[in-house]
Amino acid sequence: MLTILGRQSSINVRKVMWTCAELNLEFERQDWGMGFRDVNTDEFRALNPNAKIPVLLDGDRVLWESNTIMRYLANRQGSHTLYPQDAWQRAQVDQWLDWQASELSPVWTYAFWSLSRQSPKHQDAEQIQTSLTAWTRAMSILNTRLEQTPTYATGPDFSLADIILGLSIHRWLNTPFDRPVFEAAQDYYHRVAARPAFIGQCAGFP
């Protein structure tokens, strides 16, 4: 039995849960972080010295970094659709996984914590607007990509890239602000959000 350590409201925890569901992997999840068990303890840091969620326990194996966990699970199950073997196809999936982590996710942080989480530490109007402007610019890049692909982000097959990009658009659509309409992104979102694995593991959280 796999064990995922982390609260379900975390987007990084949900992408691991969604991956497990796509692979028909049974798992249990334990609530850690922000309102639950404290990650800033010796117990948790022994598993992840960064004190961040999620952490995956696979028997006596311990793994952190959510995108790495996703790749590991797909490789563990031999899923060449979620994570292709072909070098070029795999690079396309990795490109969008890395882009989401390095370019998209960082720019939404301030606005999301302000508008969705109502964080008292994230209420500077100028920083909110800066975050929203950068977020919109990044989403326009993603929308342009999705205008060019008929079904999923990297081609005709659903992949790991679609898990994190689908969750990212879910966050975009569920954060309360006056956002531009990106039609390709919305159409794509409706396709991926209809998947049973998304419905079972990810719906109901921003």
TrEMBL record:
Classification lineage: Bacteria, Pseudomonadati, Pseudomonadota, Betaproteobacteria, Burkholderiales
Keywords for this protein: Transferase
Family the UniProt entry places it in: Belongs to the GST superfamily.
Protein name: Glutathione S-transferase
Domain GST C-terminal stretches: 86-206
GO molecular function annotations of the record: transferase activity
Matches recorded under InterPro entries: Glutathione-S-Trfase_C-like (IPR010987), Glutathione-S-Trfase_C_sf (IPR036282), Glutathione_S-Trfase (IPR040079), Glutathione_S-Trfase_N (IPR004045), Thioredoxin-like_sf (IPR036249)
Residue stretches making up the GST N-terminal domain: 1-81
UniProt superkingdom: Bacteria
Keyword Acetylation part of the UniProt annotation: no
PANTHER family according to UniProt: DISULFIDE-BOND OXIDOREDUCTASE YFCG (PTHR44051:SF19), GLUTATHIONE S-TRANSFERASE-RELATED (PTHR44051)
